[in-house]
């Protein structure tokens, strides 16, 4: 019998195997208040596909839905020293596995019995001192020694300090420490005595080059920046911006001092969750071939469900955001009266500062049938807005990366953004002359410039739909996945642990 040549499957080089423990305060779908939750979910999954052992450690908050709580498996418990009170604190470990990632939830009713992950600094400082220490103690307890411990934002910023002090002679103390800044505005600054009491870190870290903020306060993020081996932030532009006075939030000098260890890696999105071709929440699914036809059905469904006039000819401009000073809402407030006309509808989804919530409610009343203020946090409505709107506003004052512009491109909605941080790195400005680009952009933080960008968008939408539609297709085909960036993270981990 003649032998049939068997074609060998091409092996893709995924690089050397490494292990990493992610430590942070939120992770979708368990708990999410913003983009940190998305990144803590999607990046580990992408790393697992790149020959990495990945563990994610987050608190077991009471607000984690019951359907996940039920599936968690008890992995053990122990008692741990925490602060100067000499008391032993309970640490329970509950485990859940999915998509090649192991999730460990730190269980302690005293700290995590609130509904929300964040309450106020008086409670959050002890809570996250406890969490950072308990996460490392749990790794030792489980005898799982990662090559890298990767902690996120101020809530886990004490991890590098604990690693090199209380844990330095333990197994986990051998790991490299990476700290990612998702938002420099939040630093965990509080009365020095309180932080010293709860963290029980040695007195020598409370000096001006490490934890000390001023004569009264300590700064947890500043301490983490000092002690980590590598400091990353979520876009290249933001990595540069945070070293300037305008964006440095008071830490610019400290960051410039540590600049040799700063690296900007742009975020991606989970393209399985954010996929209009399979998204069950939509009125009609679509891909880049069917978008022009099928997006209409989503627009109609959105207008109907939000009580807007159902009219395909109007441009629907969306905004999905935490309603805070970061997000450029003052500019939006300023321009609403000038952009609202018989051809325009605006949909805002968000919660936050009362003054923005009230302003948007006022506009809803003023422009009945054409303005919707959906004051809530609602994932399902967010999916429908991404799919049903024509354009999405992200005019942020500062934006470390921003995910809503990435999701909107994936859903064929054109982003209108300010050129800052990750918005600058991910949205190439539309160029009318050669018909290239992904969205409409403006540079200085001025309402006149946002107004102009929205008008440029409206002009193209109403006067040159062919070019608009081409941009929709171009945006849907743009790679906004984690693939490239996860590789960059992996390269960094390997560089930090060259021992194998
Ligand atoms: P940030 O982390 O600063 O809030 P990002 O753009 O990085 O901003 O991430 C925001 C994430 O939160 C996105 O996934 C967005 O869809 C989601 N989001 C923001 N506000 C809401 C809301 N009101 N309802 C549902 N999802 C929201
Ligand atoms: C922060 C930033 C946002 C970023 C997100 C995830 O919340 O505000 O720009 O996309 O973290 O990294």
Automatic annotation (TrEMBL):
UniProt keyword Transferase present: yes
Chemical reaction(s) catalysed: [(1->4)-alpha-D-glucosyl](n) + ADP-alpha-D-glucose = [(1->4)-alpha-D-glucosyl](n+1) + ADP + H(+)
Coiled coil: none
One BP term from GO: glycogen biosynthetic process
InterPro entries from the UniProt entry: Glyco_trans_1, GS/SS, Starch_synth_cat_dom
Keywords: Glycogen biosynthesis, Glycosyltransferase, Transferase
Pathway given in the UniProt record: Glycan biosynthesis; glycogen biosynthesis
Keyword Glycosyltransferase: yes
A Pfam family matched in the record: Glyco_transf_5
Gene Ontology terms for molecular function: alpha-1,4-glucan glucosyltransferase (ADP-glucose donor) activity; alpha-1,4-glucan glucosyltransferase (UDP-glucose donor) activity
The Glycosyl transferase family domain, residue ranges: 310-469
Domain of life: Bacteria
Domain Starch synthase catalytic: 20-256
Enzyme Commission number(s) of this protein: 2.4.1.21
Binding site for ADP-alpha-D-glucose: 32
HAMAP family reported in the protein's UniProt record: Glycogen_synth
PANTHER family tied to this protein: ALPHA AMYLASE DOMAIN-CONTAINING PROTEIN, GRANULE-BOUND STARCH SYNTHASE 1, CHLOROPLASTIC/AMYLOPLASTIC
Function description: Synthesizes alpha-1,4-glucan chains using ADP-glucose.
Assigned protein family: Belongs to the glycosyltransferase 1 family. Bacterial/plant glycogen synthase subfamily.
Protein's name in the database: Glycogen synthase
Taxonomic source organism: Faecalibacillus intestinalis
């Amino acid at each position: 019998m003649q032998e049939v040549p068997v074609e060998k499957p091409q092996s893709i080089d995924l690089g050397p195997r490494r292990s990493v423990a992610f430590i942070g305060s939120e992770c979708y779908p368990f708990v999410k208040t913003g983009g940190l939750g998305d990144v803590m979910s999607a990046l580990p999954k992408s790393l697992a596909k790149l020959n990495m052992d990945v563990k994610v450690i987050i608190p077991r908050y009471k607000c984690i839905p019951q359907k996940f709580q039920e599936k968690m498996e008890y992995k053990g418990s122990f008692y741990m020293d925490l602060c100067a009170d000499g008391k032993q604190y309970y640490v329970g470990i509950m485990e859940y596995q999915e998509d090649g990632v192991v999730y460990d939830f730190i269980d302690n009713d005293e700290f995590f019995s609130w509904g929300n992950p964040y309450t106020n600094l008086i409670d959050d400082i002890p809570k996250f001192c406890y969490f950072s220490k308990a996460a490392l103690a749990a790794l030792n307890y489980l005898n799982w020694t990662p090559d890298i411990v990767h902690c996120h934002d101020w809530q886990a910023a004490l991890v590098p300090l604990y690693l090199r002090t209380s844990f330095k002679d333990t197994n986990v103390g051998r790991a490299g420490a990476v700290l990612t800044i998702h938002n420099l505005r939040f630093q965990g600054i509080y009365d020095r005595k309180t932080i010293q009491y709860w963290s029980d870190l040695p007195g020598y870290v409370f000096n001006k080059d490490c934890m000390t903020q001023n004569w009264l306060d300590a700064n947890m993020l500043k301490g983490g920046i000092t002690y980590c081996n590598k400091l990353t932030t979520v876009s290249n532009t933001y990595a540069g911006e945070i070293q300037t006075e305008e964006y440095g939030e008071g830490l610019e000098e400290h960051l410039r001092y540590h600049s040799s260890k700063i690296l900007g890696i742009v975020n991606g999105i989970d393209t399985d969750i954010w996929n209009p071709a399979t998204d069950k929440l939509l009125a009609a699914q679509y891909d880049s071939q069917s978008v022009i036809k099928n997006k209409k059905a989503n627009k109609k469904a959105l207008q109907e469900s939000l009580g807007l006039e159902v009219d395909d000819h109007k441009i629907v401009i969306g905004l999905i955001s935490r309603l805070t000073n970061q997000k450029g809402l003052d500019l939006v407030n300023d321009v609403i009266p000038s952009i609202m006309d018989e051809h325009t509808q605006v949909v805002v989804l968000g919660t936050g500062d009362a003054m923005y919530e009230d302003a948007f409610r006022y506009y809803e009343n003023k422009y009945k049938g054409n303005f919707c203020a959906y004051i809530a946090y609602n994932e399902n409505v967010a999916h429908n807005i991404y799919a049903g709107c024509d354009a999405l506003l992200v005019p942020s004052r500062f934006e470390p990366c921003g995910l809503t512009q990435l999701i909107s491109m994936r859903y064929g909605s054109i982003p209108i953004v300010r050129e800052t941080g990750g918005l600058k790195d991910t949205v190439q400005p539309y160029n009318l002359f050669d018909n290239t680009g992904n969205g409409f952009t403006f540079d200085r933080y001025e309402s006149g410039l946002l107004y102009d960008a929205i008008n440029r968008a409206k002009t193209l939408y109403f006067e040159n739909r062919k070019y608009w539609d081409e941009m929709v297709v171009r945006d849907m085909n743009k790679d906004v996945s984690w693939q490239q960036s996860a590789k960059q993270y992996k390269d960094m981990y390997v560089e930090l642990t060259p021992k194998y």
